[in-house]
Structure formats: structure tokens, C-alpha cells
Design a protein that fits this description.
This protein has no helices and 15 strands. Helices cover about 0% and strands about 40% of the residues. The strands form 4 sheets. Strands 5, 6, 7, 8, 10, 13 and 15 form a 7-stranded antiparallel sheet that branches. A 4-stranded antiparallel sheet has the order 9-14-11-12, with no helix packed on it. By secondary structure, the protein is mainly β.
Length: about 260
């Protein structure tokens, strides 16, 4: 990308926050305060103008960002990086009752949630979003708690059996892989816990295959429970943390970045 010179940052009022310029490799080129000039590899493309320090725009005023994979909006001016978002899924059960089906039990007051014995299981799925940062790892986690006032020691182990396939007639779902995470229980009744484990990389889901419109199928289950007071945990939600470019892809099908 061609280097551009940003001139005339004057015209902004005093007290404007620090402007941080990041090159295509994600490195801070320089910090700019009002009135300064900076030269950097711009993340913008197409026809644009930047009179009086305005953002680079098209003729109709739309901001233009690079369509290139791995580029987008960063957070934190001191150590810029892509921010995290949640990939949400809905828990589902078997159509008929089974030996490993969690009970839909009273949680608190009139609220019911799924309560798990060891080996109880639920299913969910996740659709990879178009703002996913290609090549970054994803992390699956369970939101859980217990309702006992007598827990003093012990914890639970959650398991996630997963298989992933690209969309658009590119791949079939392969044999599943499993990740588990042990977490000690809180001694506080109803305490909201989040047990998280890496879901991609190494022997897990293939990071290089992750892309928009891919789908992850998941079986979540309680692998172990050694909490004192002989209580069973509740799962409230299962979701995935992923890093986001903060923007969409140009194309809705592969090549998403062409």
C-alpha cells in the first residue's frame, strides 16, 4: 500500500484524544496529537480525501477501509490489537428423554435452568462471522454455577466435542475433537463462573481452516464433578470468544477478501 501524508490535523478543537496510526503489520508507527503530521502505510483504499485532517472518505462521505484479510480496527492505543467478541449459540437437547439428559430444574425463584449430572450433554452450533480475524485462535467456554450453600472444595470439568467445516461446498465435517477444562467451584451460592478452553490450534480445530460461513458443531457435557456438598452444577450458556476485525468482508462468499 502506498504511503500517504496526513496533513493539517489543526482544525480539531483542543483536547482531541490521541490519534494512533498502525501499519498493516499491526505496529504503531507514531502517535499524533492535534497539529501534527504523520506518514504511514494507510489502511484505506479507493478514491478519498482527507482535507483538514478528516477521515479518508469517498466522494459521498463513506469511510473506506482495506478489504485485505487480517486488517481492521484495533483497540488500545498503547498496545494495539484486535478486540474480542462473543460468538453465541443456543443449547438444544435430544428430542426424547435419555440417560444423559440434564434436568430442567428450578434454579432460583421462578427461574429454571439445565442441571447436569456427570455425562449429561447438550448440543449447540456456531456460525463463523465475517469479522473473524483470519488465523487467530478461538476459545469455547461454559457459563455455569451451583445453588448449594455447602460447597467448600472441589470443582467440575466441562467437555466440548467439536467438528468444523468450511461452507460454500469446500469441506465435509471431519471426525470430532474434544477439549476439556477443569475449574474449581466458587463457595458462593449462585456465583457466575466461566470455564474457558482453547478450541482451535494443535490437535483441536484447524485454525487455518476457520473462515466466515464455516460452522462448528458442538456437544457440551459434564465430564467430572467433585464439588463438596454433593451438588450438581447448572449450565446457563455456551459460547466462543473470537478476535474481530470490527468490519465486514467485501465478498459474501470465497474469496471473502478479493
Amino acid at each position: 500500500m502506498a504511503a500517504e501524508t496526513f496533513n493539517s490535523l489543526g482544525g480539531f478543537s483542543a483536547g482531541i484524544p490521541e490519534v494512533v496510526v498502525v501499519n498493516s503489520a499491526g505496529n504503531v508507527v507514531t502517535n499524533v496529537l492535534t497539529g501534527g503530521n504523520v506518514q504511514a502505510s494507510t489502511m484505506y483504499s479507493g478514491a478519498y480525501n482527507h482535507a483538514n485532517g478528516a477521515p479518508l472518505t469517498t466522494g459521498d462521505g463513506s469511510i473506506v477501509l482495506s478489504k485485505t484479510s487480517g486488517q481492521g480496527l484495533f483497540v488500545d492505543s498503547d498496545t494495539p490489537t484486535f478486540g474480542w467478541r462473543d460468538l453465541l449459540g443456543s443449547i438444544s437437547l435430544e428430542e426424547t428423554g435419555g440417560p444423559n439428559r440434564p434436568s430442567f430444574a428450578t434454579y432460583r425463584d421462578g427461574i429454571k435452568q439445565y442441571q447436569f449430572d456427570v455425562n449429561d450433554q447438550v448440543w449447540t452450533e456456531f456460525h463463523m462471522p465475517h469479522d473473524y480475524v483470519a488465523g487467530t485462535e478461538i476459545f469455547i467456554h461454559a457459563h455455569w454455577s451451583h445453588i448449594s450453600t455447602g460447597v467448600t472444595t472441589g470443582g467440575v470439568t466441562w467437555g466440548f466435542e467439536m467438528t468444523y467445516a468450511k461452507g460454500h461446498d469446500q469441506a465435509a465435517w471431519p471426525a470430532a475433537v474434544t477439549a476439556t477444562i477443569q475449574q474449581n467451584a466458587s463457595t458462593t451460592q449462585y456465583q457466575h463462573m466461566i470455564a474457558e478452553v482453547q478450541a482451535s490450534g494443535g490437535s483441536l480445530l484447524a485454525t487455518a481452516d476457520l473462515e466466515p460461513d464455516g460452522v462448528i458443531l458442538v456437544r457440551a457435557f459434564l465430564s467430572a464433578n467433585d464439588m463438596s456438598a454433593a451438588t450438581s452444577p447448572f449450565i446457563h450458556y455456551v459460547d466462543i470468544h473470537y478476535q474481530s476485525t470490527g468490519m465486514a468482508t467485501k465478498q459474501k462468499a470465497p474469496d471473502f477478501y478479493a
